[in-house]
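ok trying again, last paste got cut off:
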Amino acid sequence: MTRIYVGPTSLYSLGQIGELSLLDAFDGDVVIPEPAIEEVRVEPTATNLEEYLEGDVETAVDGDRVEQARSLLGEKDIGAAVTVLAGVLAHRDRDDRSAVAVVSEDRTVRRMAQGLGAEITSSFGVVVRAAIEDKYLSSRQAKRIVRRIDQHGMHLTGELRERAVGEVAE
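nice, full thing came through this time. structure:
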């Protein structure tokens, strides 16, 4: 069973535009660690996240793995996102890279998660996946969502924006 750990940066970018439900396009269990939830204090993200959590979303992470993740990070402080890496440590499977996935914009989290054997994506990847997997989200709607995320602070370079929009259109 795939577990999809969502970090605070992606919660912010999807929550700011009211699109957290796009996480449901993944085939697996969405996990939003409690410390990541607590780190989200900006509106409208906090309200949108509160509403999203009323669904079937796990929030628990093994505390022993949090300490192991902190140890692996050394001096780097990534805040509550360390719980995302703890989830990767708890559920990774060397024989099945799809056993655990991470949704984050944070480069340190993404690199570490990938090195530990997790699949990684970003908010933009969530939109692309939703457009591909969900027949009710048209490429036009997905392009609008990508632009809205971009306008709310998670900026893409022109090349990456075109790539994200292009992938949605395919």
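cool. The longest strand covers residues 3-6. Confidence is low (pLDDT under 50) at residues 155-159.
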